[in-house]
Structure formats: structure tokens, C-alpha cells
Amino acid sequence: QVQLVESGGGLVQPGGSLRLSCVVSGITFNAYHMYWCRQAPGKEREMVARISWSSTDTKYADSVKDRFTISRDDSKSTVYLQMNNLEPEDTAVYYCAADQGWGTTFWGQGTQVTVSS
After folding, report:
1. Cβ-based neighbour number of residue 7 at 10 Å
2. What letters, b where the CB count within 10 A reaches 16 and e where it falls short, cover 15-28?
3. Percent of the chain with pLDDT over 90
4. Pairing label, strands 10-12, 111-115
């Protein structure tokens, strides 16, 4: 059974930081590209960051470049999203996802991030 379990969300003031974690089980973690995506109320889900299976390639949405950093620890089957200088527009449910560029994409249940004073 494949499981992706996110944690680390919460309420933070503008300008603050959070680190999200996603622990993965049931797949060969180091064979999968990993993603962080988010969905704000009334908006479509969007990709925030991606890291390749080998960690050699990362991609970010323009809206989070230079503020967010994706990383992975294959020894812990965990992917992280370090979010700095958070803005109210970053408020959303954040999801991690895994795929191999083909076939099934696996999703977590999401964690809420709220940026508000």
C-alpha cells in the first residue's frame, strides 16, 4: 500500500517560515520524482516544486522561486519543502506527490498552510 504523509503545516505570520515534510512508503522512493503542489480555495491545484529521482534537477513555480527549497532524503524516504518569507498568497493546502514521469501519480492527503497576521 502506497502512503504519502505530509506534516509541518500550520498558521504563520507573513514573512515567516515553515518546513513541510512528506514521508513515503510502499514504493521504491529513490526511483520516483517528487513534487509539492498546492491548492488554494477556489483555485486549481498547481505545482510548486519538483525534484528528480536523482536530486540533480529541481524546478519551481515562478511565484515561489528564491523563497522555497525542495529537497529529499532517500535514507528516510522523505521529501521536504522549506518555505521562507511566506506571503498571504501562499495560503493553501499543500500536497506531496510521486511519479516516475509515466504511469500512476501517488498523492498525499495534504497539509494546510495559512499565512496571516
Report:
1. 13
2. eeebebbbbbeebe
3. 97
4. parallel
3-state secondary structure of 101: coil
Buried/exposed 59-91: b ≥16 CB within 10 Å, e otherwise: ebeeebeeebbbebeeeebbbbbebeebeeebb
| Cell numbers that stand for 105 in this block | 501519480
**pLDDT mean over 4-27:** 98
Instruction: Give the Cα separation of 18 and 62 in Å (integer).
Output: 19
Q: How far is Cα 50 from Cα 59, in angstroms, rounded to an integer?
A: 5
User: Tens digit of pLDDT for each residue in 45-88?
Assistant: 999 999 999 999 999 999 999 999 999 999 999 999 999 999 99
